[in-house]
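Thread: "does anyone have the structure for this chain?"

Original post by V.I.:
We have the sequence but no experimental structure in hand. Need at least a predicted one for the grant figures.
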Amino acid sequence: MAALQKKEEMSRNTSNHYNNGSTAPSVQTWEYPDAYPETLPKKPPQAKPGQSKAEIKQKALYHIRFLLTAVAVCTCCITMMIFNSTIVESRRNINSLNSDLRDIKLQNSTLKADISEQLDLKYIEKLAVEKLNMAKPNKYQIVYIDVPKSNYTIQHDKTKPEDSNKENTLLVSIKALMNGIFSRKW
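Reply from O.Q.:
Generated one for you, tokens below.
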């Protein structure tokens, strides 16, 4: 009966609000507490008939496990995607470095060819004669000198007398120490 009265009241109010002019009248609104469930106070889950508190806890634990499993799977997927992207980036860097290496090796081979060409004695002689206007010496300009082997300087001597003297004095002092230790009477 109350619902029927509200319906009639609403129909009367809506017919009066028709506006032929340019201004809109204020409309009265009704709010029902059941229309907005987020404003209602939350109730703890209640046991359905035939469910015990242990079953409710078990369901809650199941939901928590499911949520944690979903979070772990998402974390693993994100980690895999990050690792995959770093691997792809590393491969790209390796490929670019390999292409740089190939270019440098090609450049080295061309430089080695240029060096070997410039170290050719005939080529050096040709440059000396053409660009530097050099000439081969005549036979009367060449003088040979005999140098005796005793005049060569000795740069590295394998045995040093100072080292052997140090070793000898060390050995002598060790022998004296050993003789002193073993000659004592205990």
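V.I.: this helps a lot. Residues 5 and 95 are 82 Å apart (CA to CA).
O.Q.: and The radius of gyration is 53 Å.
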